């Protein structure tokens, strides 16, 4: 009998603790804005090495791998995703100097960054990412919705693999609901049922 009471009290305590944590688990952290100065997964970047004795290291075009790293000459590898360009340049210099060279300068240039708009828009296409843009503005840059667009379930496929759903009708009335787009993201506007 005593064991039954102890188990029941433990169950009640656990359920209270579960309820307390459920509220905080449901609140989502704010989405960080995109930065043109930040290296992202899948980015292709050009790394230029200078201030080296001849023959030096040729310019490198590298893609940021799924694990966030890039491979560099001399068997070097470094974490790149999530870092600002200036920080990554300094870390690459520190990787080579003084181990292999007495001095070195590094310049990183990201290749053209794109986002994609497809589905029920008038001009589905890839678009150059030149600065901050939201879902509704991206759809407008693709000629706007077709007559068959399901505007209440616009899909945003993030470059990092996440999927977000946005109600474009609500976002037109409340701009705070209009989500930002980052390089590598894809917007898919589904077709509504007839």
Can you put this structure into words, describing what you see?
With 194 residues, the protein is of the alpha+beta class. It is 26% helix and 26% strand. The chain folds into 2 domains: 44-110, wza like domain (wza like fold, 2-Layer Sandwich), CATH 3.30.1950; 114-189, Outer membrane lipoprotein wza fold like. The radius of gyration is 24 Å and the shape is elongated.
How is the topology of this model organized?
Blueprint: H1 2-26, E1 44-50, E2 60-63, E3 69-72, E4 76-79, H2 85-96, E5 105-110, E6 114-119, E7 125-128, E8 133-134, H3 135-141, E9 154-157, E10 163-166, H4 168-173, E11 180-181, E12 186-189
Oligomer: single chain
Q: Can you tell me the residue ranges where pLDDT is under 50 for at least 5 consecutive residues?
A: 3-31
Which CATH class of the largest domain?
Answer: Alpha Beta
| Largest sheet entry | 5 strands, mixed
The CATH homologous superfamily of the largest domain: Outer membrane lipoprotein wza domain like
**What's the helix count?**
4
Give the CA-CA distance, first to last residue: 62 Å
Could you say which overall geometry the principal axes of the C-alpha atoms support? elongated
What's the number of extended β-strand segments?
12
* CATH topology tier name of the largest domain: Outer membrane lipoprotein wza fold like
Total of domains: 2
Order of helices and strands: HEEEEHEEEEHEEHEE
What strand line-up does the widest sheet have? Answer: 7-6-12-9-10
Class by alpha and beta content: alpha+beta
The share of residues in extended strands comes to: 25-35%
Task: Tell me the radius of gyration.
Answer: 24 Å
- The CATH architecture of the largest domain can be named as Roll
Average pLDDT, all residues: 83
Kindly state the percentage of residues in helix.
Answer: 25-40%
């Amino acid at each position: 009998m005593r064991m039954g009471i102890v188990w029941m009290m433990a169950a009640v305590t656990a359920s209270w603790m579960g309820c307390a944590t459920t509220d905080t688990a449901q609140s989502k952290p704010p989405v960080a804005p995109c930065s043109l100065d930040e290296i992202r997964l899948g980015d292709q970047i050009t790394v230029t090495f200078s201030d080296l004795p001849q023959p030096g290291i040729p310019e490198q075009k590298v893609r940021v791998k799924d694990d966030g790293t890039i491979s560099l000459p001399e068997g070097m590898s470094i974490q790149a995703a999530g870092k600002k360009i200036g920080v990554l340049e300094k870390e690459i210099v520190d990787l080579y100097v003084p181990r292999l060279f007495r001095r070195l300068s590094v310049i990183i240039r990201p290749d053209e960054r794109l986002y994609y708009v497809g589905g029920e828009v008038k001009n589905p296409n890839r678009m150059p990412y030149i600065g901050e843009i939201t879902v509704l503005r991206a759809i407008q840059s693709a000629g706007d919705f077709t007559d068959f667009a399901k505007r209440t379930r616009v899909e945003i496929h993030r470059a990092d693999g996440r999927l977000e759903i946005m109600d474009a009708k609500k976002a037109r009335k409340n701009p705070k609901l209009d989500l930002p787009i980052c390089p590598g993201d894809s917007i898919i506007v589904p077709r509504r049922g007839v």
